């Protein structure tokens, strides 16, 4: 699959066109390095990563059977990073009872000198809509740092319900879930068919 392939797209009524494409760990490494080492990306835990570190990490992710990474576009320009993973195989193994159809998710909005009002909300809505575009997805699972209150608020806006705090090797995390019905009720976006 080429990095020019659009895997999902949607038009936000206010902010315009969003799309998701595969990530290329070589071609996208420099871009990603600027994003993950930015001070606003502290919860990504890659502040001190070198360019080769970022390249290696995303080579590992794109080669992994249970972990995927994507570049999100806004009006055709790279604007966010999206990762999905199988929580029964990675990140949350042994921390909760994974169910068939669970998909783990991470996202990171690129730093901007001219932020757009509502942009991060449009990004997480796009990410969730893309995940639920796969009919096999039953619910999305997230485990943000308990201190990341901005992400907790965003998660709530798209339908996530916190369940409990869990201890991971790298952080104390707030385990939260969002079913397809919860996402549709929160956003008004019906999903279930790939675009």
Describe this structure in words.
This protein is an alpha+beta fold. Helices cover 27% and strands 29% of the residues. Strands 1-2-3-4-5-6-8-7 form an eight-stranded mixed sheet, sandwiched between helices. A hairpin with a 3-residue loop joins β1 and β2 (16-22). The longest helix has 14 residues, at 119-132. The protein is globular and about 35 Å long.
Give a topology summary.
Elements: E1 8-12, E2 16-22, H1 29-36, H2 51-63, E3 67-74, E4 77-85, E5 102-109, H3 119-132, E6 139-142, H4 149-157, E7 161-167, E8 172-179, H5 180-187
Parallel strand pairs: 5-6
Antiparallel strand pairs: 1-2, 2-3, 3-4, 4-5, 6-8, 7-8
Helix pairs in contact: 1-2
Brief summary:
The chain has 195 residues and is of the alpha+beta class.
Distance between the termini: 16 Å
Q: How are the strands of the biggest sheet laid out side by side?
A: 1-2-3-4-5-6-8-7
Give the DSSP E fraction (strand runs of 2 or more residues). 25-35%
H and E order: EEHHEEEHEHEEH
Radius of gyration using CA atoms only: 16 Å
Oligomeric state of shown chains:
single chain
Morphology call = globular
Tally of helical runs: 5
Helical content (DSSP H or I, runs of 4+): 25-40%
The low-confidence runs, each spanning 5 or more residues with pLDDT under 50, are none
Question: Which characteristics define this entry?
Answer:
single chain; 195 residues; globular
